[in-house]
Design goal:
- This protein has eleven helices and 15 strands.
- Strands 2-1-4-5-6-7 form a six-stranded antiparallel sheet, with helices on one face. Strands 8-12-13-3-14-15 form a six-stranded mixed sheet, sandwiched between helices.
- Strand 6 and strand 7 form a beta hairpin.
């Protein structure tokens, strides 16, 4: 998947720009707060029709404006060109078009233009709460499996309905049975998909982490779920009275988590900053390979500030991995240090591009 060009209007601190990209590596150089990460956010927004993090979509609109628009021209791995336009008008919501036609459902867009992003906030995938890790799992599986996204949407709607019924004191058994049937079916699909996904990426995660760390440290992930031992129906029946007292559903796949470990120890409790960052990068690269294998499309890879908190040897190993054209396609990299980026560009074939970023403006600068 290649993003040939992008047009941006009033996106975060970017007032207006039109940029054409290399099919290989694109580097963004500039001080913090200048707009490097915002361009990556715009690319992700085109691919996923949502922000990278859990922020209100209105926060993507440039301060003082009432709307924003991002347009992109993609070339899929099948050499077909497609145009995507995604915009937000304050008070009116979001519009998403493919080749000039509005999507019937925005969820239909997910997975068509796969993207994987490595960001400074990824440390929360280890140090944060379970909702961060569930959000990651859902994002990955939604890109790889449209049926998963459908099951997730049905589950969330049924969960919301059941919680409203519990808070309202409903006792109608038939109504509960109808809502819970949807919960049970959706939960079964979600649980199986998550279980298979974690089993699939675990071996590759271990290998990539060892390559990055250059040591015998063994990184791993495991799946923690209440459905590992019981079916959803059994859990709901056992906790029905408890849920009525609490006013919400206390069991289900919305409470799943992904355990992260280094050897026999919890990465969350004992991992250093360098180990955590190496782990999250390895996890993202394992995800990249998984999406490519399942979807048949090569995702766009966004690497935001990956040099921070890593020693030069780990950075060198990462760049050697991602610079391999047989393994990775189009890459966007941000950094504040030109020496880092020049070192990367010196070892690349093709026609990489380097942009200097200042106050939301982008200037193409020579790479030779």
């Amino acid at each position: 998947m290649i993003l040939r060009k992008i047009d941006i209007l009033n996106f975060k601190n970017i007032p207006e720009c039109s940029l054409e990209f290399s099919e290989g590596v694109n580097c963004l150089l500039g001080m913090n707060g200048m707009g490097k990460s915002n361009l990556l956010e715009a690319v992700n927004f085109l691919c996923m029709a949502r922000p990278m993090s859990s922020m209100p979509e209105s926060a993507l609109i440039r301060h003082g404006e009432d709307s924003m628009l991002v347009k992109g021209e993609f070339r899929a791995d099948s050499d077909t060109d497609q145009k995507v336009a995604c915009g937000i008008v304050e008070g009116k919501g979001k519009s998403l078009k493919l080749n000039g036609k509005e999507y019937p459902k925005i969820s239909d867009h997910i997975g068509k233009f796969p993207v994987v992003a490595v960001t400074p906030s990824d440390s929360t995938l280890v140090t944060g709460g379970g909702e961060e890790r569930r959000r990651l799992i859902d994002m990955v599986l939604s890109q790889a499996d449209p049926a998963y996204l459908g099951a997730l949407i049905r589950y969330r709607r049924a969960l919301d309905s059941r919680n409203r019924m519990l808070r309202s004191g409903f006792r109608d058994a038939i109504l509960f049975e109808s809502v819970e049937h949807t919960l049970e079916e959706s939960a079964a699909y979600i649980h199986q998909a998550r279980k298979e996904w974690i089993a699939a990426i675990r071996p590759r995660l271990k290998e990539i982490y060892s390559e990055i760390a250059g040591s015998a440290e063994k990184a791993s992930v495991s799946y923690r779920s209440q459905l590992n031992g019981k079916e959803m129906k059994e859990l709901l029946d056992e906790n029905r009275e408890k849920d009525r007292v609490l006013g919400y559903t206390s069991v289900g796949v919305h409470r799943d988590d992904m355990e992260t470990t280094l050897g026999d120890y919890s990465m969350r409790r004992l991992g250093s900053q360098g180990q955590v960052k190496s782990f999250t990068i390895a996890l993202r690269l394992a995800i990249f390979e998984y999406i490519r294998k399942i979807s048949g499309l090569t995702p766009i890879l966004l690497l935001d500030d990956i040099f921070d908190k890593l020693d030069s040897s780990r950075v060198g190993r990462i760049m050697k991995m991602v610079s391999c054209p047989e393994s990775f396609g189009q890459i966007f990299i941000t950094d504040t240090n030109r020496e880092h980026l020049d070192e990367i560009l010196r070892h690349l074939d093709g026609s990489p591009r380097l942009f200097e970023v200042s106050n939301g403006t982008f200037t193409l600068i020579p790479t030779e």
